[in-house]
Design brief:
It is built from seven helices and ten strands. The strands form two sheets. A seven-stranded mixed β-sheet has the order 5-4-3-6-7-9-8, sandwiched between helices. Bound molecules: zinc ion. The site of zinc ion (ZN) has 7 residues, from helix 7.
């Protein structure tokens, strides 16, 4: 069986078609301006699209000997709710044994209580999108606090502002996105061109 990974262009087409990637003039809650906006759950609300993206990412993991040799005794972990459908899809494609996710509680990222009980497997951390990399880094710390090893890390989209690896583990992605983010409206090309801005929630 030939295992194809769709090209970055093909993935961008999926994200554009589903509305998960938008071009225009966006103002973020932190006041920054940008000509692009990602809302990844829009791609994951369609089962077929979700499956294509998750299977593609899983193939990148399966190519790693340190991962393929450990399966199925592996946990797939999401840093937040946005990564949960990706984690389920990747788990399914890899036939990994466990899945769980972190959540923000009182401003702190944590797992549900008692997650450390039972078998603690080597972990693959997956998210829908990696912007700064902070969520992944915090999740790596959480995983290590359980006494587990991180053997993989990845997302559908990685901004080029994110690190290329965490703790020596390379971050896999289907897209490495060249981010354009302006600190203020004076620097923003779309403001200069008089494009009507759209305020986004996050
Ligand atoms: Zn602007």
């Amino acid at each position: 069986m030939v295992e194809l990974i769709p090209s970055p262009d093909a993935v961008m087409q999926i994200l554009t078609r589903t509305g998960a990637f938008r071009e225009g003039h966006f103002v973020y809650p932190n006041g920054k301006h940008s000509p692009h906006y990602f809302q990844m759950p829009l791609a994951f609300r369609y089962y077929d699209t979700a499956r294509v993206l998750a299977v593609a990412l899983s193939r990148k993991f399966r190519l790693e000997k340190d991962i393929s040799s450990q399966l199925p005794k592996v946990s797939v972990i999401s840093p937040s709710s946005g990564g949960i459908p990706v984690a389920f899809g990747v788990r399914d494609a890899l036939n990994a044994e466990q899945i769980y996710w972190a959540e923000q509680e009182k401003g702190e990222r944590m797992f549900r209580q008692y997650v450390n009980q039972g078998e603690v497997n080597p972990c693959i951390i997956v998210d829908d999108i990696i912007r700064s990399g902070h969520a992944i880094e915090e999740t790596v710390d959480l995983v290590k606090s359980l006494g587990a090893r991180v053997i993989g890390c990845g997302a559908i989209v990685r901004f080029d502002t994110a690190p290329e690896e965490v703790e020596g583990v390379p971050i896999k992605s289907l897209i490495n996105f060249d981010v354009r983010m302006y600190e203020s409206d004076e620097e923003c090309t779309e403001c200069k061109d008089g494009v009507t801005p759209e305020t986004v929630r996050f």
